[in-house]
Design a protein that fits this description.
Order of helices and strands: EHEHEHEHEHHEHHEH
Oligomer: single chain
CATH architecture: Alpha-Beta Complex
CATH superfamily: Spore Coat Polysaccharide Biosynthesis Protein SpsA, Chain A
Strand order of the largest sheet: 3-2-1-4-6-5-7
Number of helices: 9
Strand content: 5-15%
Length: 250
């Protein structure tokens, strides 16, 4: 726990049999972690079976492959149902270091922020860690466009390393969001819509054979989804359009 707040790490898993044990071990090395929830999105390998042998871990299996966004929806519902106060998403592919969990938990647990992102861009870690150049420049272009339309100053919108407060997840209608990869982007748009500040910490990252990555076709689809989200945000702010994934502001 951190300051009497329950810290739960959620892992949206898909074909992570080769990396989940190492990731999980480092997650539990962080003394603040109380609970781990693994949601297996109908993997074709032994991810779920391996996860079920790990300590302090609840494992839920999707009967069909429902998508990365749908996986997160299950993760967050389970964490909230179990009484988590701080929810941190760590991908089980060991691309992001779990060693930042205490720092991210403290920023939320002390009431400073309600959302913290582990940024690969801050500190110049993306290219150093092996991010393909085309992905790096696409990341930078999308982030610039999104910052302009959503009036934010984030270094990137596309990291999968995220921490949220219970208060924030209870306010965001994340069930309305996509079941695919653009879910992440829609969540950040919802947070900015509600007027919350999003914090970032510099995060080293690693690209290797077993690290998850989407192909070019799905990357293009994701990029288009991000652009649509940013445009929808700006149109909603000006009263021209009101997409259903933006929550009503009291």
């Amino acid at each position: 726990m951190y300051r009497q707040k329950k810290v739960t790490v959620v892992m949206p898993a898909y074909n992570a049999a080769h990396t989940i044990v190492q990731t999980h071990r480092e997650v539990l090395d962080q003394a603040v972690v109380d609970r781990v929830i693994v949601v297996d999105d109908h993997s074709g390998d032994s991810t779920a079976h391996i996860a079920e042998s790990l300590p302090k871990t609840r494992v839920v299996r999707h009967k069909i492959n429902r998508g990365y966004g749908a996986n997160q929806k299950t993760c967050y519902r389970l964490a909230l149902d179990e009484g988590a106060d701080i929810i941190i998403m760590v991908h089980p592919d060991y691309q992001y270091t779990p060693q930042l969990i205490p720092a991210m938990a403290s920023m939320i647990g002390n009431g400073v922020y309600h959302c913290v992102l582990g940024s690969r861009i801050l500190g110049g870690y993306a290219l150093k860690g092996g991010m393909p150049h085309w992905k790096y420049y696409a990341n930078r272009a999308l982030t610039l466009f999104e910052n302009m339309l959503m009036h934010a100053k984030l270094s990137e919108y596309h990291t999968g390393y995220r921490a949220y407060s219970r208060e924030l997840l209870e306010k965001i209608p994340f069930d309305r969001n996509s079941d695919d990869f653009v879910f992440d982007n829609q969540v950040l748009a919802q947070i900015l819509w509600l007027g919350y500040t999003i914090a970032e910490v510099s995060c080293p990252t690693k690209y290797f054979k077993d690290a998850s990555s989407i192909n070019l076709r799905r990357s293009v689809k994701y990029g288009i989804g991000c652009l649509i989200t940013a445009v929808a945000f700006r149109l909603a702010k000006t009263g021209i359009l009101y997409p259903r994934f933006f929550p009503t502001i009291p």
